Amino acid sequence: MTSGGCGSINVLSVCARLGMSRQNYYQKRRRRQRRQVEEDLVVELVLRERRLQPRLGGRKVYHLIKVELVNAGVRIGRDRLFEVLALRGLLLAPVKGDWPCTTQSSHYLPVFKNRIKDLKIYGPNEVWVCDLTYIRTEEGFMYLALITDKFSRKIVGHDMDERLEVIGSIRALDEAIEGLPHGATPIHHSDRGSQYCCHEYVQRIGEANLSMSMTEEDHCAENAMAERVNGILKQEYGLGNRIRTKAQARAMASNAVHLYNTHRPHGALNMEFPERVHTGAK
User: Fold this and answer.
1) Whose CA is closest to 105, among 14, 198, 179?
2) Average pLDDT over residues 35-51
3) Residue 87's pLDDT band (cuts 50, 70, 90)
4) Is pTM, for the whole model, over 0.85?
5) Is 50 exposed, middle or buried, given 0-12, 13-18 or 19+ CB atoms closer than 10 A?
6) CA-closest candidate to residue 15, choices 3, 6, 25
7) Whole-number Å distance between alpha carbons of 166 and 82
8) CA–CA separation, 94 vs 256, rounded Å?
């Protein structure tokens, strides 16, 4: 009884000092407690998503968790989410890119014009953008070949190889071709790297009734989407870090492609997932 009485006296003194009633004091305390509980839930959901995609930005995380927050009766805007992440030390620091160039364009192989410059596209399987990038491991470099649908942003073909040769790019191409619906003939767009210009690769493109397009002047700008996909996989999924083994790099690359396609909201797709846009799923 004594401690309860002291507590009441303390509350009364606080209320008197703040110039508010006991009712207002308890209402504010309940709001603070509720807010704390809500913030704890937000952090829990953010950490859950970050365990899958450690470098996923706050805007995309918010898109993934907002339905669960609404279902839990938590109303929090994106700005407030960023405040909570800042207070809990969960904002991501930018990662500097420091990766060598894989484009070997000093060769005498045939090249092709840029056929997609200013081209409007209206659906999946109209244009593919392709690139090859280094993945550093303690056992040596690996080379990741990627083919991305320009409309849906889905990675439709990928392969990881120990050699900077055409075989990995062809395996990625074969995977992409295998997933094409009947009658689809996308334009294949890439830089002028020797892997894409070599006779074996060009022949495989022709056998699939596809057409070739290549960068002409500003190679990075003319293949910006493919470069961007490389950067996302490296910065958000750990492929830009020093990886211990080549086997681990292969597994990480496959997991990164899967998560990118099926669980990463894309701003250019109205925060939809590439896989759903590519297949037309609702």
Assistant:
1) 198
2) 83
3) confident
4) no
5) middle
6) 25
7) 44
8) 19
Read off φ and ψ for residue 245, nearest 5 degrees: -125, 160
- Compute the distance between CA of residue 201 and CA of residue 207 in angstroms, rounded to an integer: 10
Sheet strands side by side (includes 211-214): 155-161, 140-149, 127-137, 187-190, 211-214
- Pairing between strand 187-190 and 127-137? parallel
Start-to-end C-alpha separation, the chain = 61
CA distances from 231 to 62, 105, 154, 157, 240 (A): 21, 21, 15, 17, 8
Predicted pLDDT at 1: 41
Looking up tokens 């320009």, which residue turns up? 150
**Residue 257: other Cβ atoms inside 10 A:** 22
Element (DSSP H or E) covering residue 155: strand 155-161
Q: What's the DSSP call for residue 269?
A: G
What number of residues does the chain have? 282
Residue 83's nearest CA partner among 46, 48, 49, 55 is 46
Rounded CA-CA distance 51/42 in Å is 14
Whether the Cβ atoms of residue 190 and residue 129 lie closer than 8 Å to each other? yes
SS3 assignment for 37-80: HHHHHHHHHHHHHHHHCCCCCHHHHHHHHHHHHHHCCCCCCHHH
